[in-house]
Amino acid sequence: MERPGPSEVTGSDAAGPDPQLAATMGFTGFGKKARTFDLEAMFEQTRRTAVERSRKTLEAREKEEEMNREKELRRQNEDIEPTSSGSHVVRDCSKSSSRDTSSSESEESSGSSDDELIGPPLPLKMMKEPSNRIEEDILGPLPPPLYEEVEEDDDDDGDSEEEENPVQKIPDSHEITLKHGTKTVSALGLDPSGARLVTGGYDYDVKFWDFAGMDASFKAFRSLQPCECHQIKSLQYSNTGDMILVVSGSSQAKVIDRDGFEVMECIKGDQYIVDMANTKGHTAMLHTGSWHPKIKGEFMTCSNDATVRTWEVENPRKQRSVFKPRTMQGKKVIPTTCTYSRDGNLIAAACQNGSIQIWDRNLTVHPKFHYKQAHDPGTDTSCVAFSYDGNVLASRGGDDTLKLWDIRQFNKPLFSASGLPTLFPMTDCCFSPDDKLIVTGTSVQRGCGSGKLVFFERRTFQRVYEIDITDASVVRCLWHPKLNQIMVGTGNGLAKVYYDPNKSQRGAKLCVVKTQRKAKQAETLTQDYIITPHALPMFREPRQRSTRKQLEKDRLDPLKSHKPEPPVAGPGRGGRVGTHGGTLSSYIVKNIALDKTDDSNPREAILRHAKAAEDNPYWVSPAYSKTQPKTMFAQVESDDEEAKNEPEWKKRKI
Questions:
Q1: Domains detected in the chain
Q2: Among 140, 293, 533, 583, which lies 20 to 30 A Cα-Cα from 89?
């Protein structure tokens, strides 16, 4: 038996699929032939259509160029004689007609080649030579040189735009100034959505600014002192925006909510324990703090007790883990700043000996990276910040430098920039939202110039741009990725917001358009009056309209019309206790009371008992009976006897 060919049909195929078999297999399409595809034919057809489209676009561009040339020639020949202009036109028309004929011939040749290719694909052996010939015929000539020059110019412009993009994206065309106070603004924090800004300073105050609720007066809607008499060193919103970490000069960090109410306060450790890992909290002044970028409720603080501690909001009575920076000799060293990496797996800290140490978040014993001479020893590195891609670390040193480090090769800095003076231990740096720029501020002495905001390009670390902020130091800077606005805290108590109406979103743009509210007339009138509580109607007593009616009311009142009870004489009656009752105290008062006889002469009152004391001595005389000498009194003569014994000469004188 021979197999049926592809064109032949068997009896079973003609009858169609077996319904019993379809019911057994569970699907209805059983028995149909699968559809086959010829990939080579599909690719060839796709190639031909692409070539046709490219040819059409080239023809359209040639026609546009011819039209433009004709227009230019007409403009140039307006002042020339009509004969010459006519000859030029004839020449142009002849050129265009020749081009049209050539294009029509090429179309016919291409059409003939296309007609030859219609039908099923040829075998591979037979397609080798014709395919090469077809490609040579259909692809045609290259684009004109004028088009190439235009493309090259466009590419050059695109490259130049890309090179200028980082600087052009800086939103510095407009600014607003928020008056925090008169002292240094040492902390800035902006929530993830960009709706609220918090500022803290050396005046112990934390102020809340709501961009959507402010008007052109730019006033804070709330001000408080969460840490009493301690300077605010760091403020940061959590990744969810519902809590704010407040780090001050005390040893206890605080977490407050969006409205300023306290959520938790870290416990203070025992300062008399030598090993800081055995205490439950910090024992010395804090420097800074940071929220975990991924885990809600976890944050980190560093302190003068030479530790970096991680905390959880749910457990304020003890830290989660303790990292102890050490020198190469194993001695303690104080961390001055710390931060999380963008993914939260690494913890970086800069220390007073100039080193930068990076730990794995889950391994607290030994640092993963340790560079011992990142900055000059003895200077306070004020900030370390990770880039958005997580591969680069920027450090702002107290030695007036800004350095860039690659985490993957942490053996030397990638770039270093000097000549950036700093006078504050919290001068920070940050990356732009597109990771192409690095921003930091400079400090100046009072009256010696103006503080600047300096921009460095990350790829080359060139100083590409700078902004003069004010006649004081620039302490804090923050570039929000969603708003595309730059917040700056200065040394004279100002917080400035830089934005661009076209490049920035929301934020300062919301409050600038609102006019300043005018004080209401009713409010100005009531300010002149001092209202005492008893002058209000709710506290005022009702006026008495008539005395007679009031007396009649009092007569009906059982309490006011009750007759006072007379004093009780005797033992008492009716539930009232008498003055001399049956108690022991009343008996003593009644029977053994002291004699209240009034003795006008105290000497006579004492001598009244002299005879009884002499007859029956009881207290003093028996004690001195044996040792008391006998009394001998001098005899006193009377006046008559003295007169008798006077001499005669005295009597004569008298």
A1: 167-513 (2.130.10.10)
A2: 140
